[in-house]
Amino acid sequence: MSGTIKAQTCPYCHQEVEDYEANWEFESEEEVECDNCHKTYVSKPQYIFDGWLIEKQCEQCGEWTDDGMVLCDCEDED
Q: What is the pTM of this model?
């Protein structure tokens, strides 16, 4: 396969698998029999690391805020 796709789809008949029936297990390779054409294929979910979400705690109110925020909401009220 040359790239990833957004839904688990049979490579033979292109029948899309419902999300609740798809193989979502990280690092899992699962043989799947298509409900439509009854051919077997392998499904391997691929995940991409998107980065870190960093938060900091306001020294005045203790509220956790996005690191990109210069001031907390409580500091704006002063």
A: 0.56
